[in-house]
């Protein structure tokens, strides 16, 4: 019986720790990251995501938040560091104070107007991301991003 209580206590504590959002310090991820400058096109995607997806959250939260892509050179730098580079990332504008609770993988944290950081320990392969994505039950083809390809 003690083992069951111990297991339950560990489960509750780890679940509570995950529900607290990202462990940010002043909007920055405390682990190893890659920092990239944003292109004008990437800034447009972020603005579209914020205005379309986030401002209509009540009706849009069924769609994938994984809509952000790295440039080819950014993707290559990540591949050199990690051994692979996922196709899509979720953007969090930590510069705006965002720190949403939930599952986290393949994140691009916008910590300033012109830069993002990729937390390396949260980067997973496209295959792993698909599994996580399917567990969430998100639809991939958002009205905000009609050209979004399959992950």
Detail the topology: elements first, then pairings.
Layout: H1 2-18, E1 33-37, H2 40-54, H3 57-60, E2 66-68, H4 72-82, E3 89-92, E4 107-112, E5 115-119, H5 126-136
Parallel strand pairs: 3-4
Antiparallel strand pairs: 1-5, 2-3, 4-5
Q: In words, what does this structure look like?
A:
By secondary structure, the protein is α+β, with helices and mostly antiparallel strands. It has one domain. 38% of the residues lie in helices and 15% in strands. The protein contains five helices and five strands. It has helices at 2-18, 40-54, 57-60, 72-82, 126-136, and strands spanning 33-37, 66-68, 89-92, 107-112, 115-119. Strands 1-5-4-3-2 form a five-stranded mixed beta sheet, with helices on one face. Strand 4 (107-112) and strand 5 form a beta hairpin. The radius of gyration is 16 Å and the shape is globular.
Briefly say what this structure is.
Helices cover 38% and strands 15% of the residues.
The poorly predicted ranges are: 3-19
Shape: globular
Going across the major beta sheet, what is the strand order?
Answer: 1-5-4-3-2
Put simply, the count of helices is: 5
How would you characterize the largest beta sheet?
A: 5 strands, mixed
Number of domains: 1
Give the N-to-C terminal Cα separation. 44 Å
The assigned structural class equals alpha+beta
Radius of gyration over all CA atoms, rounded: 16 Å
Work out the strand percent: 15-25%
Helical residues, percent = 25-40%
* Order of helix and strand elements from N to C terminus: HEHHEHEEEH
Write down the overall mean pLDDT.
Answer: 83
Number of strands: 5
């Amino acid at each position: 019986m003690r083992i069951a209580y111990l297991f339950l206590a560990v489960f509750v504590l780890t679940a509570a720790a995950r529900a607290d959002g990202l462990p940010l310090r002043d909007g920055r991820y405390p682990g190893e990251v890659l920092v990239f400058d944003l292109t004008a096109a990437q800034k447009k995607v972020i603005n579209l995501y914020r205005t379309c997806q986030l401002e209509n959250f009540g009706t849009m939260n069924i769609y994938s938040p994984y809509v952000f892509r790295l440039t080819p050179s950014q993707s290559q730098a990540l591949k050199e560091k990690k051994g692979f580079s996922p196709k899509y990332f979720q953007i969090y504008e930590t510069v705006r104070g965002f720190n949403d609770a939930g599952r986290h993988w393949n994140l691009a944290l916008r910590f300033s107007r012109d830069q993002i950081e990729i937390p390396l320990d949260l980067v997973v392969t496209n295959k792993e991301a698909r599994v996580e994505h399917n567990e969430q039950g998100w639809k991939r083809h958002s009205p905000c991003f009609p050209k979004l390809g399959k992950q």
